[in-house]
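In this section we walk through a basic example: taking a raw amino acid sequence and producing a predicted 3D structure, encoded as discrete structure tokens. The instruction is simple. Fold the sequence below.
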Amino acid sequence: MSEAEWSGFLVEVVTPRFPDGLSVFDVQGQSRDPASGRVVRERSKLLVVVVFDSPGHRAKVAEIVDAYRRRFGQHEVFRVEQPVCAGV
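The resulting token sequence is shown next.
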């Protein structure tokens, strides 16, 4: 995935679902290819969205994960939900 492809995905898919803000980090990832069993290492993105707990937010995250899988041909997308204590 190129930076231009990621930027397009962010603009078209992610931002409309979470317009109030998010963070993106460049990371190095790895996973095991299910077909060959080989460990594959690749540049990746870590997307962080902090929202109030809501079934509507979960659906938006699921839509983003599904769109990412389809667009970039990924067999897995790592997703973590973690309660946090935040203040402004």
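Looking at the output, two observations stand out. The first helix runs from residue 3 to 17. DSSP finds two helices and two strands in the chain. In the next section we compare this with other chains.
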